[in-house]
Amino acid sequence: MKIGITCYPTYGGSGAIASELGIELAKRGHQVHFISYELPFKINKFYKNIYFHEVEVLEYPLFKYPPYSLSLSVKMTEIFENEGLDIMHVHYAIPHAASAYLTQRMLGKDSNFKFITTLHGTDITIVGNHSSFYKLTKFCIESSNGITCVSKYLKQLTIDTFNINKNIEVIYNFVDTSKYKRNETDKKKLGLIKNNELGIIHISNFRPVKNIRNIIEIFCRINREINCKLILVGDGPEFAFAKETVKRFDLNDKVIFLGRKDNVIPLLNSANLYLLPSKSESFGVSALEALSCGLPVIGTNVGGLKEVVANGVCGYLFDPDDINSMVNACLDILSSKRKMEIMSAEARKTALKFDSRIVIPIYLEYYRKII
Ligand code: GMT
Are 201 and 161 within one domain? Predict the structure, then answer.
């Protein structure tokens, strides 16, 4: 198959999943054409069968805001015609689905241009829900030839928010469990966490939805009881606030800020627990990657995280502001080697259910259905 993929190329769950999807499809012999303003960050080496088409945005004095989404639809049209794409798959509704719709109209009724929109979370909960985008998001969802959501929670929320009367397929996010797996030598090699310490890790784009303050407060309280370190990976709007808070709590020598990292596997393998106390999470792909490396997850019971983390089995889920319970759950796991081992084995078992070898064929089947 020849598949076009459009996503946000910078850091973030939807871009990461779209890129991994492209890599997995290419591995299976499909031709994948990424169309975006930048090479997606995960496509950081040569991959057979993967092509990248950069969308050029015209700067012009009249354009205070250059209309990227229009240039994108022109590029989609060009690539569809030149490469003979079978399907276009866009990730994150705004503006990608709108560009794909415009492409379809430009190509005309006789073309067989079909597009699938995968909704990831904030394109519904924050962006799509905003009054400036609500009507367009509803229109784009209804105009897509196929719609997928990354969790049952997101599907229901999309139906309720936009009053959608169209079939929506749930296709869960996935992880390559042969790459994301426990390797004890990583911890030694990196040397971030000493032998007598335990590690807690959080990876995100530091947006307010991630509840960064709670992460630091939870860690501060665990640190009083257990010799541990907190590894924070990523960057974003609350990064400076996080640094300031760590300083205020006098935790500078206990919290390691790493910024953005392309390869998080050795970092996950340096830790013992993953913390994701988000206010909302439609799926939580970073939690899945952590589970795959055998890390129990302490997270929240809002959104789709509960479809990934079995409460009490491979982690614990609480209300976003129930800091006390999260601290107790972390201490409960970290203070018992036996408990840590049992939960770690369960974490890995859970991740295997979301292995790319299971999920990619579901995407391919869906492509065939829509085509
Ligand atoms: O919130 C993020 O981390 C970024 C955001 C995105 O769209 O890039 O992530 C969303 O998509 C991910 C991949 O499907 C999901 O795992 C995240 O749960 C979701 N984020 C939220 O719902 C807040």
Answer: no
